[in-house]
Amino acid sequence: MSQAIQFPLGADGLPTHWYNLLSDFTEPLPPPLHPGTGEPITPDLMEALLPPTLVEQEMTGEEMIEIPQEVRDVYALYRPTPLLRAVRLEKALQTPAHIYYKYEGVSPVGSHKPNTAIPQAYYNKMAGTQRLATETGAGQWGSALAFACSIFGLECTVYMVKISFEQKPYRKLLMETYGATIHASPSDRTEFGRKMLAEDPDSRGSLGIAISEALEDRATHPETTKYSLGSVLNHVCLHQTVIGQESIQQMEMAGEEPDIVIGCSGGGSNFAGMAFPFVRKKIKEQKNYRIIAVEPASCPSMTKGELRYDFGDTAQTTPLMMMHTLGHDFMPPSIHAGGLRYHGMSPMVSHCLKLGLIEATAVPQLKVFEAAVQFARSEGIVPAPESAHGIATAIDEAIRCREENTKKVIVFNLSGHGLFDLSAYDSYLNGRMQESGDDA
After folding, report:
1. What's the pLDDT tens digit per position in 384-421?
2. Cα–Cα distance between 204 and 165 in angstroms, integer?
3. Are 80 and 389 in contact (CB under 8 A)?
4. Non-local CB neighbours of 223 within 8 Å, separated by 6+ positions
5. Which of 147, 207, 400, 436 is 20 to 30 A from 125 via CA?
6. What distance in Å separates the CA atoms of residue 47 and residue 98, rounded to the nearest whole number?
7. Residue 337 in 3-state DSSP?
């Protein structure tokens, strides 16, 4: 009898609610602060950026939030997503560990990002928004929001970090196919972008700069435009919890309980989506999971940053958030995992780390691509560079099991495919990739 490697959920396995970890924290999450007064942000101030329903979801302590049927109908294009056992990788590693991965690359844009883009576009449409302004690093978030806006009839303007704009032209084309308008950031279309270019005409950009440009765009078009963020914020983490909820059902189908849960982490959204439902079981059922957030060694906000209030953007226009940060003016190296090139970490993920509910580790770029190639050659899927950070750590844990002759059950979130990232693989395979920063 052949080894079962797929654990498919039917349509009835699609979650009907999002899970809100705020409801289960034993210590309250510190609130965001007004950048001028230092006082906690009130809902009316947040509604300048977001529609009322998203503001409510950002601040609520309710445990479960119902997913609107209109959102579930779009989710049904690709959810539930597969959970697979990586038996070929296990064999290649000669490990007694059992390795599972949740594959979010089956979405229309190839990543987990539509899980929040779809509800954000829906709630904005219901509130009368005409256009959304956003930023994107590697292009996965921009692609997802462009797709969601096309579904709900909204305009979409994306400020794409310049290094990724140059490295990933097909991401730009995908966004344009969905009808979005794309600008390389820093751009000459905003006052802050022009300021950055004046200081450094060759600036490769950062998520912090792109966020500042998108926020300025919204501020200069208040009648028609709202801002949309693909990571970091509470409501984004909330929407992503469909990943972990499905994974729990699928692990039950596989007849195993995970010992280790892993996800890559830049701003925190895909990690939160996978981890938070398992954190819930850790809190409520005293499950002894190790839950590991994996970040790039070149942007180590959790492993080397400070836990303090900081701005989410470079121009210092966002509310101050309590998070692990390298400083809002940190300029990350031009690594190929563009979606992880961010100075800060989600306040909720940061709070989990503070409370000891999760742990964090950092992985260098060459090791990430070594793991990505090994995974591709055993499992067949070419992973996104961001996702490959989680793969590298899963491999490390599986090798430890081999060395210690212990069987552990490992599950990680493969948050997207790398078919738009083949130039990065070309750089690695042909020896041009450096440990961090630009290719040689």
Report:
1. 999 999 999 999 999 999 999 999 999 999 999 999 98
2. 9
3. no
4. none
5. 207
6. 46
7. coil
Residue 84 phi/psi, 5-degree rounding, is: -130, 150
What are the residues whose beta carbons fall under 8 Å from the beta carbon of 77, sequence distance 6 or more? 107, 108
Q: With left for phi above 0 and alpha for psi between -120 and 50, is residue 20 left, alpha or beta?
A: beta
What is the strand order of the sheet 290-296 is part of? 83-85, 98-103, 409-414, 260-264, 290-296, 359-363
Question: Residue 39, Cβ neighbours under 10 Å: how many?
Answer: 10
What contacts 39, CB < 8 A, 6 or more positions away? 33
What percent helix, strand, coil does the chain show, rounded to 5? Answer: 45, 20, 40
* pTM for the structure as a whole: 0.94
Q: N- to C-terminal Cα distance for the chain? A: 49
Judge whether 263 and 289 are in contact, CB under 8 Å: no
> Domain residues of the chain, as ranges?
71-110+240-429
Answer yes or no: are the C-beta atoms of 416 and 230 closer than 8 Å: no
Q: Tokens 């290094």 appear where?
A: 163
Per-residue pLDDT, 217: 96
Task: Provide mean pLDDT across the span 45-50.
Answer: 88
CATH number of 71-110+240-429: 3.40.50.1100
Closest CA to 335 of 299, 362, 374: 299
Measured CA to CA, the distance from residue 295 to residue 274 in angstroms comes to 15
Listed in order, strand segments (DSSP E) in 79-130 are 83-85, 98-103
Q: How far apart are CA 292 and CA 117, in angstroms?
A: 25
